[in-house]
Amino acid sequence: RGGKHLHLSLVANPSHLEAVDPVVIGKTRAKQYYTKDENRTKNMGILIHGDGSFAGQGVVYETLHLSALPNYCTGGTVHIVVNNQVAFTTDPREGRSSQYCTDVAKALSAPIFHVNADDIEAVVHACELAAEWRQTFHSDVVVDLVCYRRFGHNEIDEPSFTQPKMYKVIRSHPSSLQIYQEKLLQSGQVTQEDIDKIQKKVSSILNEEYEASKDYIPQKRDWLASHWTGFKSPEQISRIRNTGVKPEILKNVGKAISTFPENFKPHRGVKRVYEQRAQMIESGEGIDWGLGEALAFATLVVEGNHVRLSGQDVERGTFSHRHSVLHDQETGEEYCPLDHLIKNQDPEMFTVSNSSLSEFGVLGFELGYSMENPNSLVIWEAQFGDFANGAQVMFDQFISSGEAKWLRQTGLVVLLPHGYDGQGPEHSSGRLERFLQMSDDNPYVIPEMDPTLRKQIQECNWQVVNVTTPANYFHVLRRQIHRDFRKPLIVMAPKNLLRHKQCVSNLSEFDDVKGHPGFDKQGTRFKRLIKDQSGHSDLEEGIRRLVLCSGKVYYELDEERKKSETKDVAICRVEQLCPFPYDLIQRELKRYPNAEIVWCQEEPMNMGGYQYIALRLCTAMKALQRGNFNDIKYVGRLPSAATATGFYQLHVKEQTDLVKKALQPDPITPVIP
Questions:
Q1: Which residue in 45, 106, 256, 264 has the most C-beta neighbors within 10 A?
Q2: A Pfam family in this protein (predicted)?
Q3: Which CATH number describes the domain made up of 531-663?
Q4: Do 425 and 385 form a contact (C-beta atoms < 8 A)?
């Protein structure tokens, strides 16, 4: 009405009540970043809640508690609670312990305006007051619309089954529109003719739009904001791009991320880490996981991309491997080397932030953030992969299925520390099997596998990887940006590999120089499968067993192979489990025509990659006439309810046994006797 333009974004919302709350807040924060809205007055989140869900769903509390955190604040959200005084069939006395459904917001000392929804002008006044509060004090505010639900929970529901007295009153109660019309007529401010004219105008608009909707054919482009112009849908095939970086850029950013100001006094342990990193960059050898990750972030930032990493304890890293934010041991001053890569660098160009102790809320926030602009690498890291199931609704309803349901792409990266180190059933598994089970690729059909295109990955709902080298991790992160489509990336991140002496890469594996180790026929890029490192030729008829594995168990297998001087077993690492690398698997099957095929994993048989891999490996073998399902031998733990044993000695025995079994001279017993 004031002549100003307003842009409204409606975020797709599943029936899982309140799950969308942190997604909206994350997207709002991203809009503020991209529009340089530093005062947070030009972009605002509005959340519409139900009375039962506002009081009952824990994610409401998680979202409210993000509101004043430095890297999650949006300058206040307006919460509008449609308070029907009944939740489906549950009365308030059964649905909450507090007097008001909005009492959870008292934890923030947020103002809560309770208003009679039958008083239209009072509702307008309360909402204007809420908006002014938000713009003035930059904090959350709640409007509680005390109203009623005229009909049942849905079109065919009968509310009188459970609330007979309430609905007897409602049936005889005039609507809010009728009450307001009567009030205006009695005041003499409008006539019946004026009211009829307004009603006719509104009904006409609604009918015209309804008729137009019958001929509407949805297009994927309609759902993408202007930032996404030029990005491809699965029907528009995308070419693969290389992810290697010029050596001089690697050296320059490597120097920047391994130094700190002259008078800065870091902890001596952290100082030693940075000195080692500087030496790695100088020599070009022994680059570990933490430095490989930092190089990925740094090179993306200098290319002009926004990088955001958040989660519990991510600044230091749960396992003290990242140290992206340094703390002066005398003054407490903080310094982030990745904020000082280029002159006049935007302080938020690289953002790393410890989050509140929340999975559901924070993962939802980062998902919303990632949906705003494709030219950003947005990462959420779980403290341990085991804890990610606290955000299972986000994986099920948004991340795995969002593109299929709502045509919305996201390049969100999820890091889930995973691996069997003897830490027990709560600190061993990122539940790899769940992510693979939710993958939508057909296990019985080998897709088109053109080496220069990525039709397979575009048609899949997401990517699941279990990477074993710093260089490959570097490339899989950069691959998220260097392509013209977006897919979520689930990473089973390492724990003990962070400091494993063999889990290192040379700087030449990161660059784009032809002839260097990372450069293959197409260029330098992420390796979906890493072949055996014994220097085998294209045809090795003397190899009796091909062991396929994924993740850190490779290093234990390789160590045992060297120790036992086994020469007739090849070990290949499946770095990308989903979508399945049929072409590279078949290449290895052809290389070892006489080999027994083994899948080796640390996880129990009913977990890990086995169920997913076996079906697709069988399809690849059948196409080459190499046998059937029973020709795939399994080596790993037996089926189990718990992810891992709680006894360290038993863990060591199980791990030793499975590694030795994978390399034993005798044939391995088939899964099906």
A1: 45
A2: Transket_pyr
A3: 3.40.50.11610
A4: no
